[in-house]
Amino acid sequence: MAETARTFIAIELPPQVHAHLADCQQRLRRAEGDVRWVRPDLIHLTLVFLGDVPTDMLGDLEKTVREAAAPFGTLAMRVQGAGRFPPRGLPRTIWIGIEEPSGGLASLQKALAQATAAFAEKEEDRSYTPHLTLGRVKSPRGGRDLAGAVDAMAGETGPSFEGREVTIFKSDLSPQGPTYTPLAKIALSAL
User: Fold this and answer.
1) Can you give the CATH number for the domain in which 68 is found?
2) Using CA atoms, how far apart are residues 38 and 40, in angstroms rounded to an integer?
C-alpha cells in the first residue's frame, strides 16, 4: 500500500493574530462550555483540505499549487467577528471570521480547490467561509452560555494582516494533538 501524507493548504497567521485568538479563547472559556480548544499557535486559515495524498504525488501537488497561485498577489485581510457552526441552536464549532473585501481570497481558494481536486480524498460540498477554528464543542454542557458568548463577540474587529504566501502542510495526528509540517511555501507575488 502506498505511503500517504494527510495534507492541506493554508495561509499562516502572524503573531498578533495568534495573540488575538488566544484572548478570544480566554474570554469564551468563561462560558464553561465543554470545548476542545485549538492551541492558538496551531491555528491557520485553511484554504483546501486534501486528506491523504500519496507521498509520491507531493511534487505534482506542489507544482499544481504553484501554477494555481501564480496569478494572485498579497491579500490584505482582517480578523472580523466570531461565529459558530451551526449558526442556530447549540454550537459544534467556534470560530473567528476573516474579512478580505477585494474578493481575492475567495478567488484564490476557488482556484486552489479546482486545481487540486484530483489530489483530494473527497470533494468539498459546502461553500467556503473563511474562518479560524478556535475549538470544537464536545457536549451540550454550557452550550447556551457558550453560544451567547460567541454571539456577543460577533461584531468585534481584530488585527489586520497580509497573506503573502500559501503553505502546503502535512498533518500528523496524535493523542497530544496535531503536528503541522510545512512541505512547501508558495509566494503570492503577482503584480
Assistant:
1) 3.90.1140.10
2) 6
Q: Domain containing 96: what range?
A: 4-187
Burial class (CB in 10 A: 0-12, 13-18, 19+), 129: exposed
Would strands 93-99 and 131-137 be described as parallel, antiparallel, or unpaired? antiparallel
Angle made by CA atoms 142, 144, 149, in degrees to the nearest 5: 95
CB atoms within 10 A of CB 128: 14
Q: Is the pTM of this model over 0.90?
A: yes
Q: What SS3 class is residue 150?
A: helix
Closest CA to 95 of 78, 77, 83: 83
Least confident segment among 2-6, 20-24, 131-135: 2-6
**φ, ψ (nearest 5 deg) of residue 189:** -125, 15
- The Cα 39–Cα 52 span in angstroms is 23
pLDDT higher than 90, residue 121: no
Please state the domain count of the chain: 1
pLDDT at 78: 97
Strands, E, within 40-178: which ranges?
45-54, 75-85, 93-99, 131-137, 157-163, 165-172
